[in-house]
Amino acid sequence: MWSLPWADVLVGGQGRSWRTVPQERSVLVVVHTVTAATRLFDVLGLWSGDHRVQTAFTCTRTSAFTTGTEELLRERGIEPIPWEQAVEREFDLAVAASYGGPLHALRAPLIVLPHGMGYNKFAPGARHRESARNPVFGLSESTLVHDGRLVPSVAVLSHAEQRERLREYCPEALDVALIAGDPCFDRMLASRPLRETYRQRFAADPDRRVVVVSSTWGGESLLARCPTLVARLARRLPLDEYRIVVALHPNIWSAHTPWQVRGWTEEWTRAGATVLPPHEGWRAALVAADVTIGDHGSVTFYSAALGVPVLLASAPVEAVDAVSPIARFLRAAPRLDPDGDLPTQIESAITAHQPDRYDSIVEHTTSVPGESARLLRSTVYERLKLDEPFFEAETIAVPVPPAAPTEPSSQVVHLKVDEHQAVATRLPAESLREAARLPADAVLVATTSEPTRRWLEWAEILLHDDRCADPQQWIRATLARLPAATLAVTRDEAGRWVVGGRDTPLVRFTGPDDLGPVFAAFVHHRIAAEARVLPSTVSFRLGRRVVSAGVEVG
């Protein structure tokens, strides 16, 4: 029975007989956190298909945000080797995306990539240190040097301006600095042709604005300073005009646990906002975005670099290196007033946006746009002492997010009807959270999946988004148990929306699938107006969208 450590099976000489494909070189990928893992996956494809190279993974377990890191690797079919075994063995190359932990103990040349937009934040606990060599994490002696020896063999920088700061903060590292661009940003640039695909996945047709809300981690982040902002946005932005997509830094999920974050964000998702998973989706959202509300995190800066209008809900300039591009951006970008008129501020940011406004700042995202894959692969193969593959190094577009957002389970429909058109404005039921009663011009449509008893009790209309063999029987039986409701709406076997009351004829609508609440609100309005005849066709305006629906009574 074999008893070799897993590390030997992968890369050790003693495990040679267990391997099928002979290896010429070995690479150790050092993963600190989920954030670092996602940046490493941007570059692993540069060599992972080469049968001459065996790649192993390990986790330092030294970060405060390690939760979920090994689980993420295992989801991708990766079994990390213990750190204690990793540092006992020699590798031909090691690659990391953070300087945390005892990287000096590795027995391999080390390439370190940035895992955000350059190096901007201070080393933990060192913000107020007065020193000529500023303690910027990734550019200072405290992260680059151990016992007088440089930790990285190659310190990857995305832009030449970082090299100038490195010259001031840690000049002894200049010889190992490599300006190789930003693979994360290059993937977003490569994804621009898929903008409409991403927008459709976020259920954003051409008439809807995609509002991305991004929060980095820590006490100065958007989430820390404006914890109710997303909820207020969701309550005030009409569903037919906006899609809200929320990107929370992976460290938030790690520090507070996914269970707790889902608890905090449940109100947002009930109101129709999409909360992205911690490891991917935010880049597709930025490509799809019409505006980004953010803070001093890299996501906000990347958004501006893509030409998207930006509003800052938190802008702690003191939290970043004063001469960094992000600090310059924080001083220049407009602020959001969280207590002000949110729709007006968003529309003003979009309509007044000048695409070249931040060019002199965001040009520092990368010195070599689109070239990071080529430069990094050449560096990796040079260190491995192998000939590069004959094909060109490719930059791959970011994946389409796996799941589309869902509509709020219950909606408030404001309806104005004239002889030509019905104008509908829809908000989530959560918009009534602080209300004592329904507005006079509104009707509340609750669904059969509604978890909030209050909305079921307030609802004048109940909606069941499923097909019924006998819609009339379901409508009457349901209304018998909901005294406050006057109408119910479901689908017939043909997929048409069917609206009915206790003693009113059924009304069938043939039109867009997402407008069941609006169709029901229209019938409710006509009954309240004592209209005896319904038109055979109705035109509805919903924000910037105009649609028609066929109407059949009986």
Please state how the strands of the largest beta sheet are arranged side by side: 14-15-21-22-20-19-18-17-16
Tally of helical runs? 21
Can you summarize the main beta sheet?
Answer: 9 strands, mixed, barrel
Integer-rounded radius of gyration? 28 Å
> Any idea what the shape is?
elongated
Structural class: alpha/beta
Cα distance, first to last residue? 77 Å
The amount of beta strand, in percent, is: 15-25%
What is the number of beta strands? 22
Mean pLDDT: 89
Classify the helix fraction into a percent range: 25-40%
> Can you tell me the residue ranges where pLDDT is under 50 for at least 5 consecutive residues?
127-133
What would you note in describing this structure?
By secondary structure, the protein is α/β, with parallel strands linked by helices. Helix content is 30%, strand content 20%. The protein has 21 helices and 22 strands. The strands form four sheets. The chain has a nine-stranded mixed beta barrel with strand order 14-15-21-22-20-19-18-17-16. Strands 2-1-3-4-7-8 form a six-stranded parallel β-sheet. The chain has a five-stranded parallel β-sheet with strand order 11-10-9-12-13, with helices on both faces. Helix 20 (471-479) links the parallel strand 17 and strand 18 (487-491). Helix 8 crosses helix 13 and helix 11 (250-256) packs across helix 12 (258-270). The longest helix is centred in the middle third of the chain and has 13 residues, at 258-270. The model is unreliable at 127-133 (pLDDT under 50).
